[in-house]
Amino acid sequence: MMRLLVPLGLFLASFLAAGLFTLNAVPAVIMGKAMERIEAAGAASGGVRHAPRLREDNQTIVRASPDILYSVCAYDLSEGDLELSIPWPADGNYASISFYDARTNNFAVISDREAEGEAMHLILSSDPNASALHAPTERGLALYRRVINAETDLEAADADRRGFTCTSLSDQ
């Protein structure tokens, strides 16, 4: 009986260790690769990359919506806090900003409905005691999405979302 229990115990311990490693390491690797690609693509003004409107021929993300304009800010709070300017659409279409930590966890979402359409300025900080939005890790992504439709003036919508900026407070 003991001959069976020792190998079974080793197998279960190895299985649990591999599972824990996978759950903790893989998301960080995925987010690291995503941030490298975003940073390599280059950020426009205010540390933000404004992606072109998605079409079937230019999608890099599987199943991304062609009815949404995307802008992303890859942040690193190791040098200090970040100030974000977030515009909301005046045409009544939906917009939101989602925050992801270095392990792909979504830790905050704010929409124009919650903000009642008023443009926002917020501070993102890794300090849990700061009077700011707390990021659980120093690195991560802020993803701004703005819905468009057939009635949307695409140039105006694009100009609106370009008001989304991420600026390091240490640069000011």
What does this structure look like?
The chain is 28% helix and 29% strand. The protein is α+β, with helices and mostly antiparallel strands. It has a single domain, classed as Sandwich (Immunoglobulin-like), CATH 2.60.40.1610. It starts with a helix and ends with a strand.
Topology, please?
Layout: H1 2-41, E1 49-50, E2 68-76, E3 82-86, E4 95-101, E5 106-111, E6 120-125, E7 133-134, E8 139-147, H2 154-161, E9 165-168
Parallel strand pairs: 6-7
Antiparallel strand pairs: 1-2, 2-8, 3-6, 3-9, 4-5, 4-8
**What number is the mean pLDDT?**
82
Low-confidence stretches: none
Q: Which structural category fits the helices and strands?
A: alpha+beta
Question: Might you state the CATH topology name?
Answer: Immunoglobulin-like
Shape: elongated
Number of domains: 1
CATH class reads Mainly Beta
User: Order of SSEs, N→C?
Assistant: HEEEEEEEEHE
Cα-atom radius of gyration? 20 Å
User: Strand share of the residues?
Assistant: 25-35%
Main sheet: strand order = 1-2-8-4-5
Largest sheet: 5 strands, antiparallel
Helix content: 25-40%
Question: What oligomeric state best describes the polypeptide chains here?
Answer: single chain
CATH architectural arrangement: Sandwich
Number of strands: 9
Number of helices: 2
Could you name the CATH homologous superfamily? Domain of unknown function DUF1254
